[in-house]
Amino acid sequence: MIKSKTSLFALAVLAAVAISASQARAATYNAGDLIMGFRVTGGIGSSSNLLVNLGSAITFRDLTSTNILNITNIGTDLSNTFGTGAGNGVEWYNRTDLSFGVVGVYSSASSGAVTSGDPVRTLYASQTRTAVGTLGSANSATPTGISGTNMGTSATSMVSLGGTTFTNATASLNNSSVAIVGTGANTWTANTSGTTDFNAFNPGVEQTFTASAWSTGTFGTATNVEGAVDLYRVLNSTSGASPTGPLRSGSYEATILINQSGQVSVSAVPEPSTYALFGLGAGAIVFAVRRRQLKA
């Protein structure tokens, strides 16, 4: 009986590890991955964009935890690119000209199969969070009224960004999910320095750092939050969408935060259906344990 309980416990642990691993950053870019981009307007790092692959957007859409701490840590990359404070006196997290945001899309095709509940040209894009506020809920302006033409143009820009960033990077730091590239055509800067980011989002997808940290005691170890953006999902079509949502208007999915150490974390409220699935899974484990106990 003890051995049976141990086996069931091991399976539960493995399942938890599998869920955690699915939320880890991707080593190489795949269609539908989220890209976090950083840029500055002058000084150290002004000729570079720092891009980070956060993994599949579907994972963020279907989060199974309220808070996910440290999905990646890019403190070294940010320091090396935008200032360490040592020798040059510039610390990346105190730069008021440093901005970041997140975008992603699976396909720019005008038609095609639905992928994991996302019709073609389903966009993922961040919006500036005005304050930390209540984590797990939106505190930003919801993107609305995006035209079908702009959805297509935005999707094309995002696909191009992902395809060129991680295959033709001029330098790479720490791991292959982080790339340092220039600021020319089809780069993060080229898509965010105008009045409408990625040809569809106005206000833009970025949040600018401040000289002081936001403080939140409600997010585990993710204190000294330097920046936070809300991630939205925008459907170009509701046909086959699961979950569904408003047409060409954003649905809040999660809040992505970065702290002074470069730790990137996520806060969201899991979907009710997710809770139900966990309830079924927990019930099945309890049932199996009791059944084995009766047989023992």
Features:
globular, 296 residues, alpha+beta, disordered N terminus, disordered C terminus, 11 strands, 11-stranded antiparallel sheet
Outline the structure in words.
It is built from 6 helices and 11 strands. The protein has 296 residues and is of the alpha+beta class. The chain has one domain (27-270). Strands 1, 2, 3, 4, 5, 6, 7, 8, 9, 10 and 11 form an 11-stranded antiparallel β-sheet that branches.
Distance between the termini: 6 Å
Give the strand tally: 11
Number of helices: 6
Helicity level: 25-40%
Summed over residues and divided by their number, the pLDDT gives a mean of 78
Question: What summary fits the major beta sheet?
Answer: 11 strands, antiparallel
Low-confidence stretches: 1-25, 171-176, 273-296
Radius of gyration: 20 Å
User: How many domains make up the coordinates?
Assistant: 1
Shape field: globular
What proportion strand?
A: 15-25%
Q: SSE order in H/E notation? A: HEEHEHEEHEEHEEEEH
What structural class do the secondary elements suggest? alpha+beta
